[in-house]
């Protein structure tokens, strides 16, 4: 792997599956089925068996291990998030978002936050990150089509009273459409 001006040997030339994001690469050795991560210049073995599913975001890898446990590698450590795979989950940008029963949660900056409680009907609005995420934010629409925003650990509501028809997050700037053809931007607490 070429990383920050150096070439690193990852111990295999044949990988079965691989994915990359900022400072992190996941890969499975084709011959041993070992699932490893290259993280900030180090190769770390995560599992001795091929995982069922993987998802990668900047600085983290979420995966369902061979036995069905939902896990997260972040900051040189692996955490068991759930004993089984969530119904829906996705990793993008700096976020891992997943369901736990009727709740929708996100992992960001080393902590897990509840985005919505008892909100299974929101799943199409959040997955698979239709709006996207910035370094500090993720946006979605609630049951009534209202825009909600997670920004630096806080959930912001009442951004607009319009029904949202489309949205996108670009570098923590929220671009959304409402009505027939109105495009607005939310940035630094104001709608433009």
Could you explain how this protein is built, in words?
This protein is an all-beta fold and 192 residues long. The chain has one helix at 123-126; strands at 2-3, 6-7, 15-21, 24-29, 35-39, 42-47, 53-57, 60-64, 70-74, 77-82, 89-92, 95-100, 103-108, 111-116, 137-141, 147-151, 154-156, 164-170, 173-178, 182-187, 190-191. The strands form six sheets. The protein has a four-stranded antiparallel beta sheet with strand order 3-4-5-6, with no helix packed on it. A four-stranded antiparallel beta sheet has the order 7-8-9-10, with no helix packed on it. The termini are far apart.
- Helix/strand structural class: mainly beta
SSE topology string = EEEEEEEEEEEEEEHEEEEEEE
Distance between the termini: 43 Å
**Number of separate helices:** 1
Quaternary structure of the protein:
single chain
Portion in strands: over 45%
Note poorly predicted spans.
none
Helix content: under 10%
Strands ordered across the widest β-sheet: 3-4-5-6
Q: What is the number of strand segments?
A: 21
Q: State the major sheet.
A: 4 strands, antiparallel
Instruction: Using the alpha-carbon principal axes, give the shape.
Output: elongated
Radius of gyration from CA coordinates: 18 Å
Tell me, rounded to a whole number, the average pLDDT: 88
Keywords:
21 strands; 4-stranded antiparallel beta sheet; elongated; mainly beta
Summarize the structure.
The chain has 192 residues and is mainly beta. Helix content is 2%, strand content 55%.
């Amino acid at each position: 792997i070429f990383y920050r001006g150096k070439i690193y040997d990852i111990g295999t030339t044949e990988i079965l599956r691989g994915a990359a994001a900022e400072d992190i690469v996941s890969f499975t050795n084709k011959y041993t089925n070992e699932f490893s991560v290259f993280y900030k210049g180090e190769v770390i073995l995560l599992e001795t068996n091929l995982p069922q599913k993987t998802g990668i975001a900047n600085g983290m890898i979420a995966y369902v291990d061979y036995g069905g446990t939902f896990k997260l590698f972040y900051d040189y450590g692996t955490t068991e998030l759930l004993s089984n795979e969530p119904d829906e989950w996705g990793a993008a940008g700096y976020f891992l978002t997943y369901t736990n029963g009727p709740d929708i949660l996100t992992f960001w900056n080393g902590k897990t936050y509840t985005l919505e409680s008892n909100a299974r009907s929101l799943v199409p609005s959040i997955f698979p990150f239709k709006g996207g995420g910035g370094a500090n934010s993720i946006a979605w629409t609630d049951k009534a089509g209202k825009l909600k925003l997670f920004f630096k650990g806080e959930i912001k509501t009442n951004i607009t009273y319009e029904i949202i028809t489309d949205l996108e997050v670009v570098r923590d700037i929220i671009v959304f459409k409402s009505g027939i053809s109105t495009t607005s931007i939310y940035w630094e607490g104001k709608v433009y």
